[in-house]
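Appendix B, Record 12. Input sequence as logged:
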Amino acid sequence: MTGRPVRARMLVLPGTGADASWFQITGESERMIPVAGAATVDVSAKVPEKVAAGSFSFALGAALEEAPDQVVSSPTVVFDVPDREKPRFRWWIVAIVVGALIILAVGGWLIYAFTQPPSDPTLKQAPTISGAAESGSVLTVGPGVWDPDDVVRIYAWQVCPDTASDENDAECEDILVGAGEAAEGAGGSTFVVGAEELVGQRIRVVETAVRVDLEEFGEEGPDDLSGFPQSSAPSSLTDPVEEAEPTTALVPGVVGLTYGVAQDLLAQAGFQIRREILAGTPVCSPKVEDQDPDAGVSATKGTEVEVRIKDRPPVTSCWTIVTDDDVVIMDDWLPERVGP
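Logged structural output:
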């Protein structure tokens, strides 16, 4: 269940009248419980001759290495010490067998109790959109609130027909930036309304919250996010996009900036970003090497600005981990930008 072996410490808990010196765990007291299995523990009991006949008891305890102060006790095992003058049945054999069976159950319970995988994030407040729903305007995401709150957020902007509603959104589709094979889904925490076909349509953003467990990373991080607990939630729909009087602005210069920074800067000026991948060795956080239109050119707000940038290597090479808050910050060069 854990996907990895778990180390547990075994100990004997003597009952009333019994003494800890009677019992001995055979072999090491610390054992590795294998994946999807359990450890068998042999316990021997040697009662001194001076002890009078009677009933005695003990229990087995086990604690994971991860929680050494919390001992899980098995049900009590009772055994009889017969009169020394009579032939004695080897009750210690029964105790060993019963103890071994109990530790199997205890080991399984420990694995289940302490190593349950994290659950999917729970939405407490849906994301919101601010900004005017009109051509040339900039829409900005107000991040949703999740439990827990240490999640990675990924955004996807969608367009919906004017007949759609928050309850009936079956016809919503991802907004594509660019054309042909170069087209890609619009992501990031901002979106510039520019395409003519968006006029009369409604817009929303879908926020995906991903929980990332640092213990599952390894040295270089995961290959992708598909195996991590995650949940998605859409914002409310905007009003139908209205066609506004075209306005112009100067295209800012983004050459030398990373893709994420370039996207934010262009959005603030009223321009949508579109990237072209250049040939060459992939690098983390590649910088924009060229742009079209050039910096300083006057262009209509909502126009797509093409940036030429090198590809990045797999995600495993571009992760940064902040262990103090158990938060993962993704490199800003990703297919989808990570929000605040």
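Residues 122-330 form a domain with the Immunoglobulin-like fold (CATH 2.60.40.2700).
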